Amino acid sequence: MRISPRARRLRLRVDPRTREVLLTVPKRTSQRHALAWAAEHREWIESRLAEIPDNVPIQPGAMIPYRGQELAIDWEPSSPRRIEHSDGRLVVGGPLENLEGRVLRWFKAQAHALLAHETMELAAKAGARLEKIGVGDPVSRWGSCSSKGGIRYSWRLILAPDFVRRATVAHEVAHLVHLNHGKDFHRLVEQLLGEDPRPARSWLRRDGAALHRIGRRG
């Protein structure tokens, strides 16, 4: 439940990334009334939850997106512990109980390396000062830029097609120059990217939630 001084009516939303049910309540509406209203919409909530696909565990045979392509998790206990990316597969050995953690660390390392390279490349193109680059696993945003010149991304961008990741990098690098979303900002994003960023934004709105179900439990 979220109390909002700006809300004029009760609103329900189901987050497809986390399965969280969010009830927005105007400031002067009683919580008791709000909960009763939400209970009347139980069928709607359950139908939305049922539409969300199950999480995708990291296990042998699983198909995991990587830069827009599907990778098969090819696990054999006798294979080397070091993960190898070959012919549409992630070949990995070692104990099965450690498989998920090692595969996720591999994805995060790939994400950090590629995002750091592309960010430095576009920052140099923009003539912008860049302090540091990091990756994490937020559910509310794909990237963020601080006023001190630090950029942080969701590692899950490595799962998306290349044009989506590159557009996100261009967006955050442009914030090093313009800490707003004005006309100059959008113009710089397109200049850095070399193409229209709107298809990438559309892809994330349409398909981005599915990336949050990769390797997520519960």
How are the SSEs placed, and which strands pair?
Blueprint: E1 2-4, E2 11-14, E3 21-26, H1 31-40, H2 42-51, E4 63-66, E5 69-75, E6 84-86, E7 89-92, H3 99-126, E8 132-136, E9 143-145, E10 150-154, H4 162-177, H5 183-193, H6 198-211
Parallel strand pairs: 1-3, 5-7, 8-10
Antiparallel strand pairs: 2-3, 4-5, 6-7, 9-10
Helix pairs in contact: 3-4, 4-5, 4-6
Could you give a quick summary of the protein structure above?
With 218 residues, the chain is α/β, with parallel strands linked by helices. The protein has six helices and ten strands. The model has no long low-confidence stretch (mean pLDDT 94).
Query: Could you give a short account of the major beta sheet?
Result: 4 strands, mixed
Q: What is the CA–CA distance across the termini?
A: 21 Å
User: Per DSSP, what share of the residues sits in E-state strands of 2 or more residues?
Assistant: 15-25%
Cα-atom radius of gyration: 21 Å
- The string of secondary-structure elements, in order, is EEEHHEEEEHEEEHHH
Adjacency order of strands in the biggest sheet = 4-5-7-6
Overall number of strands: 10
The number of distinct helices, counting runs of at least 4 residues, comes to 6
Helix fraction bin: 40-55%
Shape: flat
Mean pLDDT: 94
Structural class: alpha/beta
Unreliable spans are none
